[in-house]
UniProtKB/TrEMBL annotation:
Coiled coil: none
Pfam families per UniProt: MazE_antitoxin (PF04014)
Organism: Thermofilum adornatum
Listed Gene3D superfamilies: 2.10.260.10
Ranges for domain SpoVT-AbrB: 3-46
Name this protein carries in UniProt: SpoVT-AbrB domain-containing protein
Molecular-function GO terms, alphabetical: DNA binding
Length: 84
């Protein structure tokens, strides 16, 4: 599959590939150079964190919700102050 690189090196992962791999906005993708090839791997950091933090004292889902809420508040403030 071919993709075109845009300004500032931006590439778009085609929708069919995103759906097949379950890629979502905000996911971290790991880019590796092997010889003259680029290897792009999806990493689910929340799944990795959950695997590391299993136990009664560590509620990853709560942390994720809190981060999402704070991000929404930040985006609202940014939009409200866009004229500054």
């Amino acid at each position: 599959m071919k993709v075109r690189m845009g300004k500032r090196g931006v590439i778009v992962v085609p929708k069919a590939v995103r759906e097949r791999l379950g890629l979502k906005e905000g996911m971290v993708l790991e880019l590796e150079v092997k010889g003259d090839e680029l290897v792009l791997r999806a990493r689910d950091l929340w799944a990795e964190l959950r695997a590391r933090g299993e136990g009664p004292k560590f509620d990853v889902d709560m942390f994720e919700r809190e981060l999402d809420e704070n991000e929404e508040k930040w985006l609202e403030r940014r939009t409200e102050n866009a004229w500054l």
